[in-house]
Structure to design on (383 residues):
């Protein structure tokens, strides 16, 4: 049993911000939220020191462990650039769980992160939802697989069209390859038996077609996002648009189809033409136009520990603080359909918690401790 107190509790849930309360954790979950000082027998105590307690953050798009810190080719397993359609690949098989990014994530208050293949391929492989620390490496896997990575835009064109002189060389070809993969898999779902090689490669697409997991679709430009929306309608699948740099240009279409978007990385330069509209003010514009979004780091593009720095800079450009915090907590949990377990501080949910010594969106504030599934895995005083 663990009792957590000594701070303002920003629940991100219906109860709002709580004062003079304590959180009672049993095992991996929140058992109760009671008045501060209420005695709980045989409990350990964890104090926030007068700061702020929040649901630990979720970074819903990273390449941690696949594109490792300090390494070059030795630790680069993010893109399998031998075939533009590789749904059978699993990100979990390429992750080095001792990548420095996992410690950095805890230092930034992040308890869970989605890790996925890169965007070189039209279909790159299956994502995995991770805890940033657990008792052993295998236990760091929270849900696997938890989405199928796909990409439109410049990256597949560059890797295959420019470098390898084969399809896709145009946006039309990328969209066609994605449609073809979905179409063939849809037809094969109707058959009683399949060639094992075909079945193995298409099993992840079957899950997307059955709505057992979403298509995590990389798209920066508005034209690519509109293509993604058309494909969603054609095949009646769930998609999440990743990056969504020009989402402010198509907010009506996004609202109409109720498609979740993950914006970011924002703390970057305009590295390519697709990113010319990157701006922290886009978060405020999306909120004003009725579009719900989550914030992502795309680690290592923006180092994962700076996710909340990006959130603070969104606030600097006019976004309200509550929405900025929800973009790292409740919104990604809802988009990834795990909000029954994560994203807010409520009785029955997993005890993923973070404490800051000041307001979490103040750059001067530091993480005091992080609890993942009821275990204290980071304590600044012990590092």
């Amino acid at each position: 049993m663990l009792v957590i107190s000594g701070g303002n509790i920003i629940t991100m849930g219906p109860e709002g911000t709580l004062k003079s309360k304590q959180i009672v954790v049993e095992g991996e979950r929140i058992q109760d939220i009671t008045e501060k000082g209420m005695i709980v027998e045989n409990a350990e105590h964890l104090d926030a020191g007068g700061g702020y307690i929040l649901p630990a953050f979720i970074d819903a798009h990273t390449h941690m462990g696949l594109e490792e810190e300090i390494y070059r080719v030795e630790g680069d397993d993010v893109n399998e650039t031998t075939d533009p359609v590789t749904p059978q690949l699993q990100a979990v098989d390429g992750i080095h769980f001792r990548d420095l990014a996992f410690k950095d994530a805890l230092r930034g208050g992040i308890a869970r992160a989605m890790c996925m293949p890169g965007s070189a391929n039209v279909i790159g492989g299956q994502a995995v939802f991770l805890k940033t620390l657990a008792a052993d490496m295998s236990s760091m896997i929270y849900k696997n697989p938890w989405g199928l990575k796909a990409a439109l835009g410049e990256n597949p064109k560059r890797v295959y069209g420019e470098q390898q002189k084969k399809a896709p060389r145009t946006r039309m070809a990328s969209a066609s390859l994605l449609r073809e993969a979905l179409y063939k898999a849809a037809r094969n779902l109707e058959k009683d038996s399949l060639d094992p090689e075909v079945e193995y490669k298409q099993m992840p697409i079957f899950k997307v077609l059955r709505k057992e997991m979403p298509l995590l679709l990389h798209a920066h430009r508005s034209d690519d996002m509109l293509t993604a929306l058309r494909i969603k309608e054609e095949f009646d699948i769930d998609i999440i648009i990743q990056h969504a740099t020009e989402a402010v240009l198509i907010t009506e279409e996004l609202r109409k189809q109720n498609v979740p978007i993950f914006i970011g990385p924002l703390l970057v330069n305009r590295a390519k033409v697709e990113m010319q509209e990157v701006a922290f003010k886009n978060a405020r514009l999306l909120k004003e136009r009725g579009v719900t979004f989550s914030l992502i780091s795309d680690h290592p593009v923006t180092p994962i520990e700076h996710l909340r720095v990006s959130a603070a800079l969104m606030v600097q450009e006019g976004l309200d603080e509550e929405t900025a915090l929800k973009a790292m907590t409740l919104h990604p949990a809802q988009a990834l359909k795990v909000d029954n377990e994560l994203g807010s501080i409520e009785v029955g949910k997993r005890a993923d918690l973070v404490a800051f010594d000041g307001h979490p969106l103040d750059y001067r504030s530091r993480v005091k401790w992080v609890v993942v599934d009821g275990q204290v895995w980071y304590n600044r005083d012990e590092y």
